[in-house]
Design a protein that fits this description.
The structure is a homodimer. Chain A is an alpha/beta fold. Chain A has helices at 24-35, 47-63, 82-94, 109-121, 135-141, 179-196, 198-213, 216-235, 250-259, 269-286, 292-304, 321-330, 358-370; strands at 5-9, 16-21, 41-46, 68-73, 102-107, 127-132, 149-151, 154-158, 166-170, 334-335, 338-344, 350-356. Chain A has 2 domains: 5-177, Rossmann fold (3-Layer(aba) Sandwich), CATH 3.40.50.1970; 195-370, Dehydroquinate synthase-like, alpha domain. In chain A, the strands form 3 sheets. A 7-stranded mixed sheet of chain A has the order 1-2-9-6-5-3-4, with helices on both faces. In chain A, strands 10-11-12 form a 3-stranded antiparallel sheet. Chains A and B meet through α3, β8 and β10 of A and α3, β8 and β10 of B.
Chain lengths: 371, 371
C-alpha cells in the first residue's frame, strides 16, 4: 500500500483532487473507478511514454473493470496541432466513447494539453483525467484546466478551459525522466516561489539537490507547487485577473520558443520559462521596480541547477530585437494592443504590469541580445 | 427608427439579449458598440450571404467605429469540418484579434455553429455575436450556445458550449430566403409547440400562412420560439437534463441526415427534423404513449406547409433499418449504450424516454420504410 498527498482544487461543481505520491499508476484504475463508476476510457499517450508506462496503467484499469482503448500520438510539440487533434478526436469517436466516459492523458504537457482539448470538444465535453509523467506537467500543465494546441501564429493560441476530474501525479515515474526534462520542470516549480512564496523559493535554494535526488523533498516540492497553482486557479479559473501571474517568465519564454521554431533540441518550454523569469527580474530591476540583488539571486539559483538564464544560452542564434518584440506582441497575453508583462518588486512579489511601453521592451531586448 | 422585441437569455454572468425585428443589420454596429466598447470584429460569412448582406453590416460597423475583417467560408454543411475550422481560426489570428474582440457569425446554422466553435477556442474563448440570416438559425441554432462541426462519425459530435454576447435576428432578411429553407426553419418553430406549448402549436396551425407571408405574425412566431428555447437553455445550459427535450425529432432526423450523406439536395436539417418529429409522434402512438390523433394532427400540419413527414418523402432511397439504427446509436444522444428518445404523451407533452429497446426501434423503422 502506498500513501499519497491530496490537494483539492476548489472549483465548486468542477472541484477535483490532485494525488501526489509514488506508485499512483498502479492505483489509477481504482481511483478512476471510485470517482467515475461505469466509465470506459481512452488513454492518450505517446510512443516514448507508452514504452515505459502504458502496460502499468492498462493493467490497473483492467483490474478495476475499466475498458480502455490506447490512442498513440507522435512524441513532441508538433503533436499540438490541428491534424493530430483531429486524429485523436476521431479515435475517441471510433471507440464509441460517450460524454460520461473518460479521456486519460498519460504523458507530459504535450499529451496533456492535446488530450484535454480533445476531451473538451468531443461531444462538447467528456470527463478527463490527467496522469502527468513529467515534472513540468505535474507542477503546471496538468493542473488548472488550460488545454490547447499551437498554430503558425503562436503557442497555445487555440484551446478550451476544461478541468480534469482527477490528476494522478506519480512521482516515481520521474525517476526515468532525462535530467534536462527534470530541470525544465524544475523551472516551473521555482516560478511559484518567485510569484508570491518567497519562503518556498528559499526552501528550494537550500534543498534543490534533494528534490532532484527524489524522495520526500521531491514530493514536498511538487505538492507545494500544485497547492500554489490550485490556489490561483480557484481564485481565477478563466484568467480574467490574478491567474495571469502564472505567466511569470512566459511572455519572454513563449517568444523565445517561437523564435527557435519550437525546436526542442535548442529550447524546451521550461528552459524558455527559466530565461523568461531571469529576464523578467532583470527587466524589473532596469525599470527600478526591484533591486538588482533579486535578479542576481534568481539567476544564481537557476544556474546552480543547470538552467539557462540568458539569450546567449540558446544555441543557434536568435533573430533581432524587433522580431522578438513581434513574437511578444502576438502572444496571447496582449490586451487591446498594450503589452502586458508579469514584473516583480522582488523575490515573491510579482505583479501584473499593463501598458508596458514597447520601446522599453525593445531597448531591453537589444541589450539582452548582447549579453 | 425601428423597434425590436428583446428576449433575455437568463444565464447569470453569461446572460444575453436576443433582438428580433426588421432592419437589425443596419443597427448591428451600434448594438455591438454599446455592449462591447472598443472591440474589433471578424465577420464570418459564406459567399451567398455575403452577396446579400455583408455590405450592410460592414457599413453599420464602420459607422459605429468598429474595425471589421470579413472571413468567407464555402456555403453548405461541408464547411462544418476540421479543415474549414482551422482556416477560420487562422484567419482570426491573422487579423490579430484578441480575447475581448468579437467574432460575428453572419449566416445560417452552418456559419453560426462553425463561427461559434472558432470563437470558443481562439485564445480559449473570444466574444461572439450571432446574426442569423435563416429562420432555422433565428429560432434554434443561434440561441443557446451549442457550437460545433461534423465528423465522419456523425453530425455535431465535436464542439463547445459557447454563449453569444448578443443575437440579432433581423426578420427582414428572411424575405430573400428560398421557400424550402423557410419551411425547414419552420419545422424547428413547430417543435417548440410540440415540446410543451400546445397553445403555440394551435396558433401556428391557425396562422402559419401569415408567418410565411412575413410581418407581425412572423415576428411573433420567432419571438415565441426564442422565448421557448431561452427558457430551456436557462434551466439546463449544458444539457444534463431538460435541454434534451430540444432534441425532439433530432435523433431520427440526424440519422436521416447521416444516411443521406448530408446531401442538402436530398434533405436539409429542418426537413430531417420534420420527418423526425412525425416519426417520434407515430412511434409514441405505437408504444401506446399517445393517441394516433396526435400524430395525424402533427403530420397534417407539417404537410400543409409543405414539409416531409415520411421516410419515403426523401428522394433517392435509404439504407435498411439495421443501418439506420446504427446511425441512431452513434448519435450523441446515447447514454451508456441505452437508446434515448424524446417521445410524447400528446401535443405539447414531450418527455425524455431512456432505455428505449433497440428491438422496438428496429421494428418501427422497418415498418416506416414501407410507408
Amino acid at each position: 500500500m502506498t500513501t499519497a498527498r491530496t490537494i483539492r482544487v476548489g472549483l465548486e461543481e468542477r472541484a477535483y483532487d490532485i494525488l501526489i505520491g509514488r506508485n499512483l499508476l498502479e492505483r489509477a484504475g481504482q481511483e478512476i473507478a471510485a470517482r467515475m463508476p461505469g466509465a470506459r476510457a481512452a488513454i492518450i499517450t505517446d510512443a516514448n511514454v507508452a514504452a515505459l508506462h502504458l502496460a502499468t496503467i492498462e493493467e490497473s484499469l483492467k483490474a478495476a473493470g475499466i475498458q480502455g482503448t490506447a490512442i498513440r500520438v507522435p512524441a513532441g510539440e508538433q503533436s499540438k496541432s490541428f491534424p493530430v487533434l483531429e486524429t485523436v478526436v476521431d479515435a475517441i469517436l471510433a471507440a464509441r466513447l460517450e460524454r460520461r466516459d473518460v479521456v486519460i492523458a498519460l504523458g507530459g504537457g504535450v499529451v496533456g494539453d492535446l488530450s484535454g482539448f480533445a476531451a473538451g470538444i468531443v461531444r462538447r465535453g467528456m470527463d478527463f483525467v490527467q496522469v502527468p509523467t513529467t515534472l513540468l506537467a505535474q507542477v503546471d500543465s496538468s493542473v488548472g484546466g488550460k488545454t490547447g494546441i499551437n498554430t503558425a501564429h503562436g503557442k497555445n493560441l487555440v484551446g478550451v478551459f476544461h478541468q480534469p476530474k482527477l490528476v494522478l501525479a506519480d512521482t516515481g515515474v520521474l525517476d526515468t525522466l532525462p535530467p534536462r526534462e527534470f530541470r525544465a520542470g524544475y523551472a516551473e516549480t521555482v516560478k511559484y516561489g518567485l510569484i508570491d512564496r518567497p519562503e518556498f523559493f528559499a526552501w528550494l535554494e537550500a534543498n534543490w539537490q534533494e528534490v532532484f535526488a527524489g524522495g520526500e523533498a521531491r514530493e514536498h516540492a511538487i505538492a507545494e507547487a500544485c497547492r500554489a497553482k490550485a490556489d490561483v486557479v480557484a481564485r481565477d479559473e478563466r484568467e480574467s485577473g490574478d491567474r495571469a501571474l502564472l505567466n511569470l517568465g512566459h511572455t519572454f519564454g513563449h517568444a523565445l520558443e517561437a523564435a527557435t521554431g519550437y525546436d526542442s533540441s535548442r529550447l524546451v518550454h521550461g528552459e524558455g520559462v527559466a530565461i523568461g523569469m531571469a529576464l523578467a527580474h532583470r527587466f524589473s530591476a532596469r525599470l527600478n521596480l526591484a533591486s538588482p540583488d533579486d535578479y542576481q539571486r534568481v539567476e544564481a539559483h537557476l544556474r546552480a541547477v543547470g538552467l539557462p538564464t540568458k539569450l546567449s544560452d540558446i544555441p543557434g542564434g536568435l533573430p533581432g530585437a524587433d522580431r522578438l518584440l513581434e513574437y511578444i506582441a502576438q502572444d496571447k497575453k496582449v490586451s487591446r494592443g498594450a503589452l502586458t508583462f508579469i514584473l516583480t518588486r522582488g523575490i515573491g512579489q510579482s505583479f501584473i504590469a499593463k501598458d508596458v511601453p514597447a520601446s522599453e521592451v525593445l531597448a531591453f531586448l537589444e541589450d539582452s541580445l548582447k549579453q
